[in-house]
Amino acid sequence: MEQVVHYWAEKGISGFTIFKFRLRRQDGQPLLTTNQVQFSYGRVPQSVSEIRGLVCEDITGGQEDIPIPATNLVDDPPVAPTGYKYCKSIQVAKNVKLPTNVPGCNCNGKCVDPRTCACARLNGSDFPYVSRDGGRLIEAKDVVFECGPNCGCGPDCLNRTSQRGLKYRLEVFRTPKKGWAVRSWDFIPSGAPVCEYTGILMHTEDTDSVSENNYIFDIDCLQTMRGLGGRERRFGDVSVPTIISSDRHDDLRSESVPEFCIDAGSTGNIARFINHSCEPNLFVQCVLSSHHDIKLARVMLFAADNIPPLQELTYDYGYALDSVYGPDGKIKQMACYCGAPDCRKRLF
What Gene Ontology molecular function terms does this protein carry (predicted)? Predict the structure, then answer.
């Protein structure tokens, strides 16, 4: 039995007091196995020279503030990720027009008072983030309203948390069955933004000819509201009537294909390499900042739990079984190799 050598209390992300204990193992205790304990820290490379199987020092070509290496210990000879152009921000197709002249809040410097901040009122008269660890989302919401270009606050405002780019050291690595995958060298706390899903923002109907493109992300905030990735529905938390006009309300609620999507097939960022899991450690969050049209929301991936270093990053792709059809009109099936204890065995 371990000995308690230190204990303390601290405020948790949801505002509750958490009691923590530091334990010391006794002499003669049996060894722990990895299914009994989750290690807080893994062995990560300290320099480029220590990276095993390195095939690319930075897949971003210097676009991100933190380089993203790629490793391959599977293929012989080892190859680097190819067939795409890295782009850290969303590219908008020529026939897509983003809304302009969206009003902002009148706060100065930073938004601190939810009673006077117009953006906080859109979030249910509160701020969606806490300032801990550079900003963490308190809970998954239908839509998160962040401050935008017409707000009075600056870039350090807490309500711009997802707009600050990558802050964790990520790595793309090759797997035997799932192709490329992503992991972090750093500990990622629950509620922290990891990355945005970028690519070409386009009309969904314009992707009809791309039958084998597995990098298309449909922008469907209503699907995330219904519980994408196991999240419970919280439709009452945001001012939905302010963003869905009455004449479009029924259309948006229909089961039709979303009007817009993000195509990361030929252009995208680190998110295009993140795999599906039936028990993911990331979740999808729709975010509005530069405008308030949910059909064109930004797609962010947040940590659903505390993620230790070197654990693969995954999210639920949200496919329903037998919902994907091929060019011949027949149902397509794809096996799932996520390895989760309750894996559905099929991605779709």
Answer: double-stranded DNA binding; histone methyltransferase activity; zinc ion binding
